[in-house]
Amino acid sequence: MTYLEAVYPYQTPPGEAELRAIDSVREVYGIQRIQFNEKERTVRVRFDASRMKGDAVVRLLRQAGIDVQGEMVLA
Predict the structure, then answer these.
(1) CATH of the domain at 14
(2) What pTM was computed for the model?
């Protein structure tokens, strides 16, 4: 297993419906952790890169109603 963390900026803070949908994303095999930072308006996702790619993570977040705007590079 190769775990990666990616940070995605978003525009609109998630509401109750989006947070419920995120619960189902957390159960996807390969997703280990999802954390929101409301101050910075980012969502950090730790996932198993041997199971999925970053574009699949973005797709899951968007399906949950989170309007991610691409990926931030971590230094």
Answers:
(1) 3.30.70.100
(2) 0.87
Tens-place pLDDT, residues 29-59: 999 999 999 999 999 999 999 999 888 999 9
Any domain includes 73: no
The gap from C-alpha 32 to its chain's centroid, in whole angstroms, comes to: 10
**What is the number of structural domains in the chain?**
1
**What is the average pLDDT score of the chain?**
89
User: SS3 breakdown of the chain: % helix, strand, coil, rounded to 5?
Assistant: 30, 30, 40
From the CB of residue 61, how many other CB atoms can be counted at a distance below 10 Å?
23
Tally the C-alpha atoms within 13 A of residue 12's C-alpha that lie toward its C-beta. Answer: 12
CA distance 17 to 62: 13
Within-domain flag for 70? no
Cβ neighbours of residue 2 under 8 Å, at least 6 residues apart? 48, 49, 50
